[in-house]
Amino acid sequence: MANEENDPVVQEIDVYLAKSLAEKLYLFQYPVRPASMTYDDIPHLSAKIKPKQQKVELEMAIDTMNPNYCRSKGEQIALNVDGTCTDETSTYSTKLMDKQTFCSSQTTSNTSRYAAALYRKGELHLTPLHGILQLRPSFSYLDKADAKHREREAANEAGDSSQDEAEEDIKQITVRFSRPESEQARQRRVQSYEFLQKKHAEEPWVHLHYYGLRDSRSEHERQYLLCQGPGISENTELVKSPSEYLMMLMPPNIEEEKEKPMAPSNVLSMAQLRTLPLADQIKILMKNVKVMPFANLMSLLGLGTDSTSVLRCIQQVAMLVQGNWVVKSDILYPKDSSSPHSGVPAEVLCRGRDFVMWKFTQSRWVVRKEVATVTKLCAEDVKDFLEHMAVVRINKGWEFLLPYDEDFIKKHPDVVQRQHMLWMGIQAKLEKVYSLLKETVPKTAEGQSVPVMVVSGDQRVQAAKVKAQQNHLLLERELQGKKEQLQAMQASSGVHIKEEPVSEEEGEEEQGDKEEEPMDTSTCGSLRNKLVNGLPAVRAAGGDTLNGHPPTGCGEAPMARELRAFVEATFQRQFVLTLSELKRLFNMHLASLPPGHTLFSGISDRMLQDTVLAAGCKQILVPFPPQTAASPDEQKVFALWESGDMSDQHRQVLLEIFSKNYRVRRNLIQTRLNQECGEDLSKQEVDKVLKDCCVSYGGMWYLKGTVQS
Question: What integer pLDDT is reported at residue 360 of this predicted model?
C-alpha cells in the first residue's frame, strides 16, 4: 500500500484498436543500413510482393553522379551482366549499374504481439502488424554475370574444335512410364525442399506502386492508422481481472505452437516425446535412429526408466545384431506401402532387408552386389537397406555401423538367447525363399551367438606372410627332389644342363617389389624368376630354353588364368588405361568376387603389368611435360594393340601420334589417319577410334586417363 501511495496515477490514456490496415501493414527493416541513412529520398523504381509468402522486392536507383560512385566499376559490372548487346531483357539499359534490388526475409512468423502505435490528442491507436520483413541487397546480377561467363567459355571451346565436332550425335530415346505413386512416397515428395521451392515459385508476383513519405496518398493512408469505428466515443472500459488481462497479453505456449510450421518427420521434440507411453517412445526413437546400443537408448529415455520394461518393449520393434538393436523391417515398411524407387511391395522389401540384417549377424562386412544378386532388388533399394545399418568402405564393402556390444551380451544372456532363436527362424525362411545353402550361426556353450571377430589389415598381412613362408619351404623341398631327378637325367642322357642363376639385379628388384607391395604373398609372385611350372628354370648349354619353350612362370596357374581373363576383358572395353586406373578397376573386381577366390592370394604391380603385356597390349610412352602433376602410375599408359576388328590399324596410328605428344588437335589426327590409311576416313570412323582411346578437353584430345585438369 505504501508503494501505491508513492506512485500515483499521473494520466490515463484511452487505447483504441484500429483494424483498417490490420491485414496490410508491414514493418520494413534494413539491417545493413545505418538508421541515420534512410531510403526515404532515394527513388524507388519498382516494387512487388508475394502475399502468401510475405516476400517483397524493391528496386531502388543508385546515384551515379555521386563522387563516391566508381563509374569504371559500374560499367564493368553492367558489361559482365548484359554483355555488349542491349535489348529489353538487359538488366542495366544504360550500360551502367544504376540500380540495386532489395529482397525481404521474415524475421518471425508470429507477429500477433506486435503493433504500430499512433498517439494523437490523448489517445493511443494500435494497428496489428501483418508481417515484419528485413530487406537486404540482392546480388542476383552476379549469378547472371557468371552464367554469361560460362556461355562465353563454352562458345570459345566449341570454336577450337572442328565444325564436325559441334554436330550432335543422334541418340536413342527410351520412353518410360512412371509407376503409380504411393501415399508414403507422395508425402515425402510434398515435404521435400525441392517441392516447397517449386510451390513458392508458382505464386505470382503482385506489382505495386510506391508512394514517397511526403506524398499525399501516403498521408491519406496514414489516416487509417486511427480507429475509424462509429462507437469510438462509447465507454469500452476493460472489465477483465488482472490475471485474465495478463493471460491475454501473454497467452500460453499451446497457442504459439499452433502458429509454428510443421517440423520434418525426422525431427523430434524430447519434451513432447516423453509425454508418450514408453512403447511409443521406443518405437519413434528406433524408427528415426534405426541402429542404437541399449545404453544410448536408456540415456534418451530419461532418468528412472525401468530397464526391464525397456527390454520388453524394444524386442517388439527391433532385432539384436552384434549386440546392438536394429529397427525391424515392418516398422520402416508398413503393410500396403511400396518402394519409392522401384514400386516393389512392402513384403518383398522387408524380406530383402531381413536378409541384410541376417548377413550382419554372420559377419562385420557385407557386399552390396551379393545382396542384390540374392534378393533380386534394384540397387537403390539395397543401398537404402545398407545405409540404415552400415557404412561403406572403399574397396572393402559395407561395414556394420556400430562396434560389437560385448557389455550387453554379458549382462543379458536370456535376451541374447531369445533373439538367437528368432534369427534361426528368420534364417530358415530366408533359406527357403532365396534357396540359400545351409549356414548356421556358431554358438557358445550357453547357446548364444559368438561375437563377430574383426581382423585388421596388419593381421591379414602377417597371416599371409606366414602362409607364404610355409609354401616356400614346401616348394624348396620339392625343388630339391626335382633337382636330384634332373641330375640323374643328365647323367643318363649325357645332355649338359645347368641351372640359370638369379642375377644380383633381379634379386634386388624382387626385394624392391616386396617393400613396395606388402600384400603380394603369392608363391608365384615371389618365385617367378626361379620356377617353371614347379621346376627350376634350367637352360641347355647352347642357351636355348628346355624343350624349346621359354619359362612362363605361373602362367598356367588358375590365378594367372583368372588375372589374364580380367585384363583381356577390361581392355576389350576400355582400349586405353593407365596403371592407376587399371589397379582401381582390379580392386573393384576383387570386391565383387566371393571370399576365398584365387585372385585374393596377392597380385603385385609387376605381375599385373606382365599380364597386360602378355595379353597383346603395349605400353605407350606418352611424353608428359616435366612439370606435370601425374603420379608414376598415371604416367604408365597401356593400350590394346590388336583387338581383331577393322579399327586396329586406325588405333595403332593414333597411338603412334600420342607417343610424340600427350595432347593433339583433331585436324592433325584426321590428316595423319588419311595419310597412313591411304583414303579419306568418314566422320563416324574417326569418331569411333577417338571415343575408344581419347577424351576431349579444351579443344584438345588426350589419351584416356592422361588429361591433367
Answer: 93
Residue among 96, 97, 198 nearest 139 (CA): 97
3-state DSSP of 461-487: HHHHHHHHHHHHHHHHHHHHHHHHHHH
- pLDDT score of 620: 84
Complete DSSP assignment for 552-614 = -TTTTSHHHHHHHHHHHHHHHHHSEEEHHHHHHHHHHHHHTSPTT-GGGG---HHHHHHHHHH
| Mean of pLDDT values over 510-519 | 40
In this prediction, residue 544 carries a pLDDT of 38
- Is the distance from CB of 128 to CB of 114 less than 8 angstroms? yes
CB 28 within 8 A of CB 103: no
Rg (alpha carbons) of the chain, rounded to whole number:
39
* CB-based burial label for 102 (10 Å; 0-12, 13-18, 19+): buried
DSSP assignment letter at 192: S
Q: How far apart are CA 678 and CA 670, in angstroms?
A: 12
Question: For the segment 685-706, what is each residue's pLDDT rounded down to a tens digit?
Answer: 888 888 888 888 877 888 888 7
Q: Which position has the grid cell 533399394? A: 381
Integer Cα distance of 703 and 642 in angstroms: 17
Residue 690 and residue 664 in contact, taking contact as beta carbons nearer than 8 Å: no
Rounded Cα gap, residues 685 and 62, in angstroms: 59
CA distance 518 to 463: 12
Please say whether the beta carbons of 441 and 361 come within 8 A: yes
Q: What are phi and psi of 338, to 5 degrees?
A: -150, 170
Taking alpha carbons only, the member of 84, 23, 77 closest to residue 54 is 23
Contact call for residues 97 and 78 (beta carbons, < 8 A): yes
> Which of 131, 101, 96 has its CA nearest to residue 39?
101
Measuring CA to CA, which residue among 346, 335, 354 is closest to residue 423?
Answer: 354
How many CA atoms does the CB half-sphere of 105 hold within 13 Å? 6
Cell numbers representing residue 285 in the block: 526413437
- Residue 507 above 60 pLDDT? no
pLDDT > 70: what percent of the chain? 74
Contact assessment for residue 595 and residue 367, using Cβ atoms and an 8 Å cutoff: no
